[in-house]
Amino acid sequence: MDPFLDEPQSSGPGFDPMAMIRAFLRRKWLFIIPFILCFSMAAVAIKIMTPIFYSAGQVRIIVQNTETNLIDNPANRYGRSRDVDRLALEEMDLLLTSPDFLEKMVRDLSLHLLVQQSQAEAGKPVFSEEESVKVAMVRLKSMLRIEQDGAHLFLIGIRDTDPDQAFRMISHILDAFLVDYRANQVAFRTSTRDFLEKQLLDYRVTLSDAEKELTDFQAGQASSTLRDNPINARNLGYAENNLSQMLDRRRGSDRTEMVRLKEEVMGVLNSLPGLNRYYTDPSLSAVVNQMVDLALGERVLAPTSGEVSGFDDDLARLRIRLNTLIEVKVAAEYPQLSFMDRNRISQYLYFNLFQNALRRVSDTLAEWIDDFRSFTSKQPELSVRLGELQDAVTQAGDLVRTLEQEIIQQNLNLKASQSEIGFQIKIRQKPSRPNLPIEPNKQKLLLMGFILSLAIGTGLVVLAIMLNRSFHAVDDIERKLGLTVIGVLPVIQDDIFERKRKLRILRWVTIILGILAVGAVGFLVIYPRLS
What we know:
- This protein is of the alpha+beta class.
- The protein folds into 3 domains: 17-49 and 440-530, no CATH class; 53-194 and 421-429, Alpha-Beta Plaits, CATH 3.30.70.1130; 225-378, no CATH class.
- The protein has helices spanning 17-26, 29-48, 81-96, 99-109, 111-121, 129-143, 163-219, 236-251, 253-269, 276-279, 282-305, 309-333, 339-378, 380-417, 442-467, 474-481, 495-530; strands at 53-63, 144-150, 153-160, 423-429.
- Strand 2 (144-150) and strand 3 form a beta hairpin.
- Helix 4 (99-109) crosses helix 6 (129-143) and helix 7 runs antiparallel to helix 14 (380-417).
């Protein structure tokens, strides 16, 4: 068999792995040479590449949900922990790479002077201070590294060829970052509060104008009976519903309760105590008047003012106070009676005074409703205008109250943001001076050399097989050409053969030089730039 031909391949159908292995073994130098070249280039890169040191500090940031509910805050769309951390990482990157922060760090660390010094040592024209600051800002931005290191944990680091310089720079940058980041968080809440306070002033003016317009209308075109009447189209149904409930209660359960209390008092005193002296008592009448005013406001204005929640608590405090005053007076007037008997008398007097307050409320409410309905039936056009003015006053008042409550909440949020309740940022791990460089990374470079050489070697073998179109065995000739082979002659190594062999060698030398160029660019140019 001719030594320049491959071994005969199996003529059977299907893939022959042994034939493929033999084909690769015959071209083993196409594997060996890329391995040697790529690993050599990796070793050269490790040897000549400038060492890069990395110093970093770990920061812990936690932001609680203490934002306003009145203004849509973009942070509210981040609900999950990882989304909140992503937002914090974006804010950190914006702050650390902002021109103002970079310029401040360059001037604090005198990095622009280092730029001017390097220009002078290289024999080049020295930049002006403004130009050197801009160059130093670009370099500093390229050296900064910001990454997440866990839940609510972030790394801020500097990569530099001088370990002492890297440690000095990151220590100063980290301290300045904490101050500026905390100030930015507080500034957001302060600006929100200031905006709300400006809006409050505007709405107070709007409320004052609406009240003046309503007062002028009631004093002029509207009936004098409606001047102090709070009933309008918005709260009319609510007021009528409350009036109906109060009247039903007076005719039902309250009447039954009054009969029971009278019987108990008659069993103790044989006669009912006089009520006039209690009605006219200044301390008791003052409490009753407060209850009437509170009940009238709740029965009429509650659906538009939104202040329903505090009514029950305020009324309960007034009822307790009224009951206490009555118990004191009964104890002074009937000292000879037992505690239980005095309690029956106190309950009777308290229920009468409380019913008197409710009666006044229902009578006043009925009068307001009748006056408003009489006015609307006689003057429908004026009643519509009156309802519009009353609605404007109500809406402006609601906005003023809402803004006042929101400003109070914002002040609390501002104080919380300055404590560890709403916002926490602190250095969890301080930066340290690096002792070993992180670049060049020997393991990474050797792995790159291995993968690159394997890919190039495999590609060259496949290319060599595809480019070789000669017949490898007698069976291939008979099968593809349909001819019968009667003999085989050895290859005659004449001038033509030598020229083809030299051409083939030149071709593979060119390919190997291309491999060397690719490896040089990858290991000596691209990798250092990426690092």
